[in-house]
Design goal:
It is built from eleven helices and eight strands. The chain is α+β, with helices and mostly antiparallel strands. Strand 4 and strand 5 form a beta hairpin.
Length: 376
């Protein structure tokens, strides 16, 4: 008997439906600095946290493109939900890519995401190449002490995917990569996420105090502060997913501005303001599409990282400009919280702060273009 393949999941339709529901409570989470527990639960119920796991392991088999577009739609309803979810998504996407393309031993993690319905939390944005915290050799493993900032989704998370620095006597400062349960002894989520925007992401600091990490749990080692192939893979795949949330915020602001503009009398300037907003929105979409294409078809390496990081800068700036122009289209009413544009303006500012920020990106791209050492 022929094997019956499961019907493909329409992630676009699911995310579009949920985006409308998520928009209802977004203002309350923003006002209260509260985590988006109920939207996370809905995403879990709809299988989104398993979406990027290959079907071979019981996952949804979604492509990076499909999940980028889903996050974009969710971002139009609730930027915080979209951004927090993107952090889980990029960890799964990178693990799946490495399994497919490098035969890396990530199968165990991918299977656990499905079997245990796990939510992953990343500290990568705050750690980046240098990492943070210390790992001291102990019997059978390491004792880790660290304070991990920007741990989005931590209130609902199961595993913190993180790193720390081990002072190796032979190799020098070495970054150890590992995952640790957010419920493990010595792990504490600190109530520190009181921020300008994206307030519902629960991007609290996670304190690791003498947390034991077994030797067998170390998934990777690399020299501290140096570019490593793992980070070229992360750059290629993670940032299109992360910036999908900001594109969604810009989409939501544009839609609100258009809704209001169609009811306003033309004072002679309205069309110009709308034209500026549309240019910014088009620039956002074009740069974003390029990033997604890189994630789907690219080969990781210094040049691909440069291309994706150029996209990250262009998308961030254009998304911010789109929201600013949307507020100008609406006028003074945009200053009021009830409309939601004020929240979109604050949420989209987060696009400035993920690595590589604009100045480091310009330097990195310039050095790649000149053929210089990217670690120089």
């Amino acid at each position: 008997m022929a094997k019956i393949e499961p019907a493909p999941i329409d992630w676009a339709a699911r995310s579009a439906r949920l985006a409308g529901e998520f928009g209802v409570g977004a203002a309350d989470h923003d006002a209260n600095d509260s985590f988006v527990f109920e939207t996370y639960q809905k995403l879990k119920d709809e299988g989104f946290f398993k979406a990027l796991v290959p079907v071979e392991f019981g996952g949804g088999g979604a492509t990076v493109t499909e999940v980028c577009q889903a996050i974009r739609r969710l971002g139009a309803g609730c930027g915080s939900t979209a951004l927090a979810f993107s952090m889980h998504s990029h960890l799964v996407a990178v693990a799946a890519w490495r399994w497919r393309n490098q035969k890396a031993p990530t199968e165990g993690l991918l299977k656990r995401v499905v079997a245990e319905d796990l939510i992953l939390v990343s500290s990568g944005g705050s750690d980046w190449l240098k990492s943070a915290g210390t790992a001291v050799k102990s019997e059978g493993g390491f004792l880790v002490n660290a304070r991990k900032i920007f741990s989005s989704g931590s209130p609902a998370g199961d595993l913190l995917v993180t790193s720390a620095v081990y002072d190796d006597l032979d190799a020098g400062p070495t970054v150890l990569h590992f995952a640790v349960s957010l419920k493990a002894p010595g792990v504490t989520i600190l109530d520190t996420w009181h921020a300008l925007g994206m307030r519902g992401t629960g991007s609290h600091e996670v304190l690791l105090k003498d947390v034991f990490v077994p030797e067998a749990s170390i998934s990777g080692r690399r020299p501290q502060g140096k570019w490593h192939m793992l980070f070229h893979i992360i750059s290629m795949i993670a940032f299109p997913l992360i910036y999908s949330a900001y594109v969604g915020v810009a989409d939501g602001a544009r839609a609100k501005a258009l809704e209001i503009a169609r009811k306003k009398p033309d004072d002679g300037n309205l069309a110009y303001l709308l034209g500026e907003m549309e240019n910014a929105a088009a620039a956002t979409a074009m740069a974003f599409d390029h990033m997604v294409q890189c994630a789907e078809t690219g080969t990781p390496g210094p040049e691909m990282t440069s291309r994706v990081m150029i996209g990250r800068t262009l998308v961030g700036k254009a998304a911010i400009e789109t929201v600013e122009r949307a507020m100008e289209v609406v006028g003074g009413a945009a200053f009021y919280r009830d409309l939601g544009l004020e929240r979109a303006f604050r949420d989209v500012q987060g696009a400035r702060f993920h690595p590589l920020q604009e100045m480091p990106q310009l330097r990195y791209t310039g050095r790649v273009t000149l053929g210089l050492d990217i670690d120089g």
